[in-house]
Amino acid sequence: MIKLIPIIFSFLIIGLFLYSKLLPYQDKLNPGYKKVFDVIHKIFSPLFGFLKKYVQPFQVGRGISVDMSQIIILVIFLALVNSF
């Protein structure tokens, strides 16, 4: 069971990456991929909503900011993968 936990967090990291890349195009996905995207969306959407209440976007330029909630979740997942 202990060996399975890092694999789960690794898949969550991949899911986080794909979620961030596919979110702008979610309405254009094929039906099979749309179902997978919806599952990933149900996992990450509440986490992002919660973190956005407490963490403001980081301004990196004029009119350009980075959503820090995705980076925070990524750091947490990486720390959890390395702890097991």
Write up this protein:
The protein is mainly alpha-helical and 84 residues long. It is 70% helix and 8% strand. The protein is built from 3 helices and 2 strands; from the N terminus they run H-H-E-E-H. Strands 1-2 form a two-stranded antiparallel sheet. Strand 1 (58-61) and strand 2 form a beta hairpin. Helix 1 (4-22) crosses helix 2.
Q: Helical amount among residues, as a percent range?
A: over 70%
| Unreliable stretches covering 5 or more consecutive residues | none
Instruction: Give the strand order, joined by hyphens, for the main sheet.
Output: 1-2
Beta-strand content estimate: 5-15%
Structural class: mainly alpha
- Radius of gyration of CA atoms, rounded to a whole number: 14 Å
Count the DSSP helices: 3
- From the N-terminal CA to the C-terminal CA, the straight-line distance is 11 Å
- Shape category: flat
> What's the number of extended β-strand segments?
2
Major sheet attributes: 2 strands, antiparallel
Question: What's the average pLDDT?
Answer: 92
Helix and strand element order? HHEEH
